[in-house]
Amino acid sequence: MAQPASREFLWGIFQKVDADRSQKITANELGQALQNGSFTPFNPETIRLMIGMFDRDGDNTINFDEFGSLWNYVTQWQTTFRTYDKDGSGTIDKNELTTALTSFGYRLSQNFYDVLIRKFDRTGRGSITFDDFIQCCVVIQTLTSNFQRFDTNRNGWIQITYEQFLTLVFSLKK
């Protein structure tokens, strides 16, 4: 695993990304800075999701300390993505996604993997890009954590009201 980047290195990147010199990075600024391996812009929804995860002071921006955590998070996801992109295509296909999520401990049907590919494949090629892979994994992890709050018997079955279901699903939005 790679060593975390130095504060000096991160500060240099932070200053380049902070276009308006506000000492905070907005979603637009982060979107300008992040690219997939195919040099396509990051999905704005993935950017919003990541800002929501790392914005500790709730102002919908990323300060320098939050940026360091975000940088390490994205770097770890890059390593994970490359591990499962077996064919080196720069995308994750259904088989690679199945391998990745199975290794993370998920036991899902092939039909559900089809659903995931349709949901997170913005290009229509039957595979998902790096940013969409992050989003897919974070959404599954968040939904799983919320499901487990109701699965008190840990048997994969829950009984909830419609409003509890909606709360579970909409909890993805930060």
Keywords, separated by commas or semicolons:
174 residues; two-stranded antiparallel sheet; 8 helices; globular
Detailed description of the structure:
The chain is an all-alpha fold and 174 residues long. It is built from 8 helices and 2 strands. It has helices spanning 7-17, 27-33, 44-54, 64-84, 94-103, 110-120, 130-150, 162-170; strands spanning 92-93, 127-128. Strands 1-2 form a two-stranded antiparallel sheet. Helix 1 (7-17) packs across helix 4 and helix 2 (27-33) crosses helix 3. The longest helix has 21 residues, at 64-84. The two termini are 30 Å apart.
**Side-by-side strand order of the widest sheet:** 1-2
Summed up, the helix count is 8
Helicity range? 55-70%
Radius of gyration, CA atoms, in whole angstroms = 17 Å
**Can you give the mean pLDDT?**
89
Distance between the termini: 30 Å
Class of secondary structure makeup: mainly alpha
> What letter string, H or E per element, gives the SSE order?
HHHHEHHEHH
